[in-house]
Amino acid sequence: MNAKFVSVEDDAGKVTRYMRHANGGGLVAPGAVVAENARIGPMTYVEHGAHIGSGCRVGHGSWIDREARIGDRTVIGDGVRIGRGTVIGSRAHIGSHSRIGSGVLVEHGIHLHADSTVPDGSEIVAGSRPAGRTTAARTSAEHRQARKSKGRLAA
Length: 155
Description:
By secondary structure, this protein is mostly beta strands. It contains one helix and 19 strands. It is 10% helix and 29% strand. The strands form three sheets. The protein has an eight-stranded mixed sheet with strand order 1-2-3-6-9-12-15-18, with no helix packed on it. Strands 4-7-10-13-16-19 form a six-stranded parallel sheet, with no helix packed on it. A five-stranded parallel sheet has the order 5-8-11-14-17, with no helix packed on it.
């Protein structure tokens, strides 16, 4: 991980020269904006036009596609794929090995469990569930409601 730049050739033969992020060593494409204090894990790719906010942590082996926007202090686990043009709000948490489609909106503070799948064009807002989801994902409001229900049953 000593090289500051890494050239990667895709299947079509196009070569992109990625720069290693100083905090974590992830690979950042030209035209992507990543806050200096964000941590981009090794072997994570941040594609052209993507924006990663202040204080974010992106795990090992994740992929942030073109034009995706990640809000401040968001945590993205290992091996996560964030689709093209997706917007994830601040202080959200995306569990490891999740697949977030293209053009998805994830509201601020939402927590998605590991291995969640969110289809293209979905919106995940407090109190809603994404249509066509293949793996359970709870919103923060659902977590609060579940805790309240458990408290009543125990009483």
